[in-house]
Amino acid sequence: MLREAATFLVDTIFDWGYLGIFILMTIESSFIPFPSEIILIPAGYLASKGDMSIGMIMFSGLSGSMAGAFINYYLALFLGRKILKKYGKYFFINENALQKMDDYFAKHGHISTFIGRLIPGIRQLISIPAGLARMNLVVFAIFTALGASIWAFILVMLGYTIGENQELIHSYLKQITIVTIIILILLASWYAYIQRNRRINGE
Q1: Would you tell me the crossing angle of helices 54-75 and 137-162 to the nearest 10 degrees?
Q2: Residues sharing a CB contact under 8 Å with residue 52, sequence separation 6 or more, in sequence order
Q3: pLDDT single digits (tens) 116-139
Q4: pTM to 2 decimal places
Q5: Where are the alpha helices (H) located in the chain, listed in sequence order?
Q6: Is residue 194 exposed (0-12), middle (13-18) or buried (19+ Cβ within 10 Å)?
Q7: pLDDT tens digits for range 36-76
Q8: Which residue, of 17, 36, 102, 108, has the greatest Cβ tally within 10 A?
Q9: Where are the domains of the chain?
């Protein structure tokens, strides 16, 4: 079934071209769970055959990722916040909790957004708390684009180099994910260390 789905997506991407990548990546990056791996890896493979351009794949993929992220951001901003203010007390979320979330994203939203975009299962969801907390839109856009572009480039290159070997793709993707998570843990630890030193020094 997965093989059939992947085949369908390759055909769809080829038929719709870069618009297909944009639409699929918008869906992937919004509130509908849809793995980017089965979009960008086949697209990278098509690029290796000369059927698509890596530059245009990246542009379409990143544009779609940003569109989906903004959908989540604004839904959380305009609808999610109203819902939490009205019904949050039933889930132990009050105005004080929302204020703490606002303060957190005002100070640490950039690193949280960047790291979140690179973690499987979280990359689509990180836009929601950012929207709830009314994170600065420019900062949100910059670090969303940075994280999304890194992940997209990894997947496209994976498809470009070993797009025909499904077993190798699965193995390398698992290894890349593990290495990425380790790097992000180190980055988060370094960031926490810097912030702690700033608090100690009264900055």
Answers
A1: 140
A2: 13, 17, 18, 43, 46
A3: 888 877 777 888 888 888 889 999
A4: 0.78
A5: 2-16, 18-29, 37-48, 54-75, 81-87, 95-116, 127-132, 137-162, 166-200
A6: exposed
A7: 777 888 888 888 888 889 999 999 999 999 999 999 899 88
A8: 36
A9: 2-200
Residue among 41, 43, 37, 34 nearest 15 (CA)? 43
Amino acid at 165: N
Question: Which tokens in the block code for residue 95?
Answer: 């105005």
Cα distance between residue 85 and residue 81, in whole Å: 6
SS3 at position 36: coil
Who's near 100: CB < 8 A, 6+ residues apart? none
Distance CA 104, CA 125 (A): 17
Specify the DSSP class assigned to residue 76: I
Q: Which residues contact 114 (CB under 8 A, 6 or more apart)?
A: 143, 144, 146, 147
